[in-house]
Amino acid sequence: MPSLSQEHSVRYPRLRWSARRGCCQNLRHHFVTHVTLTVTERLREVYRMEQPVSSGERVLVVDDEPDIVALVAYHLAKAGYRVATATSGMDAVEQARRERPALMVLDLMLPGMSGFEVLREIRSDPATQRMAVLMLTARRDEPDRIKGLALGADDYLTKPFSPAELVLRVKAILRRTGSPTEMDDVLKVGDIAINRSAHSVTVGGSEIELTPTEYKLLLLLAERRGRVQARSLLLQSVWEAAPDIQTRTVDMHVQRLRTKLGDAGDLIETVRGFGYRLRSGASTTP
Fold first, then answer.
1. What was the pLDDT predicted at 50?
2. Tens-digit pLDDT profile for residues 126-153
3. What does the DSSP 8-state code read for residue 12?
4. Beta bridge partners of 195
5. pLDDT digits over 210-243, tens only?
6. CA pair distance 87, 206, nearest whole angstrom
């Protein structure tokens, strides 16, 4: 696997990268064989694409190439899906068990644990065996396709691919397999239980009243628990505000959220000079 600082060749619809706006634009029907992104640009795009969209299904994109992850995440997020990403097989399995996405876009060639092994793991676990899987890979051999489908993949797409076709295949798979049940859509962190279908939150079994903004903030922290979320990212994701504005909005909402959560509010940690993190402890369940 090339490092993040290295250049490497990929073949997919050309992206026009704007350093000033920090975004990419898809130019349809054009293909390139070389895309160069800096470390900062790659991580910015992958991070930005992990913004949750409350009305969309959750999709986990698994690939060890940052450019591919950014491309797929961009088009899925644009189509209304909530996108999370993983760059290794082990991380993919852990996120699948913890977050229960409706669908996984899974690359075969992963470091440490191959896509086939990931697929075998999630199909053998009752908690994830109903998850839909779209395999995305550079392998074109028929035995590989047959093996993936035999292990339980719902569909198979080879690189180079059309992002528009990938989105259509994701939609078709989810139509066939259906949405997760309400029980599957409950995210638990300690005593906090977030029902993403009902948009409700309980603490120790008792429902608490949150504003829509407080709910979005808690859901984002819970879905990315254990990871520090910068204030600028929270402003973009929850308030859809410019990340560079100076405001105490985030701090005030976190303070109110902690108060409403009671003792469970201690799970929200302040990381001085950066942002906030929802602590992921032994009591955390999928």
1. 45
2. 778 888 999 987 877 777 778 878 888 8
3. E
4. 186, 200
5. 999 999 999 989 888 888 888 888 887 888 776 6
6. 37
Q: Which CATH architecture has domain 186-278?
A: Orthogonal Bundle (1.10)
User: Which tens digits make up the pLDDT trace of 52-105?
Assistant: 433 478 999 999 998 899 999 999 999 989 999 999 999 999 999 888 899 999
Beta-strand runs (E) in 130-210:
132-137, 155-158, 186-189, 192-195, 200-203, 206-208
Q: Give me the phi and psi of 118, to 5 degrees please.
A: -60, -45
The confidence score (pLDDT) of residue 246 equals: 64
User: pTM surpassing 0.70?
Assistant: no
Structural domain boundaries in the chain? 12-177, 186-278
Place of tokens 């979005």: 216
Q: Which residues contact 239 (CB under 8 A, 6 or more apart)?
A: 213, 249
- The β-bridge relationship of strands 155-158 and 132-137 is parallel
Pick the CATH number of 12-177 from 3.40.50.2300, 3.30.70.260, 3.90.1200.10, 3.40.50.300: 3.40.50.2300
Torsion sign (Cα): 133, 154, 14, 243: negative
Of 83, 84, 80, 82, the C-alpha closest to 92 is 84
Q: Is the pLDDT of residue 285 over 50?
A: no
Tell how far CA 221 is from the center of its chain. Answer: 13
Q: Between 233 and 206, whose confidence is greater?
A: 206
Q: What is the model's pLDDT at position 32?
A: 28
Which of 145, 136, 132, 135 has the alpha carbon at shortest distance from 173?
132
The pair of structure tokens assigned to 180 is 């997760």
Using alpha carbons, list the distances in angstroms from residue 72 to 2, 27, 166, 286: 19, 14, 8, 25
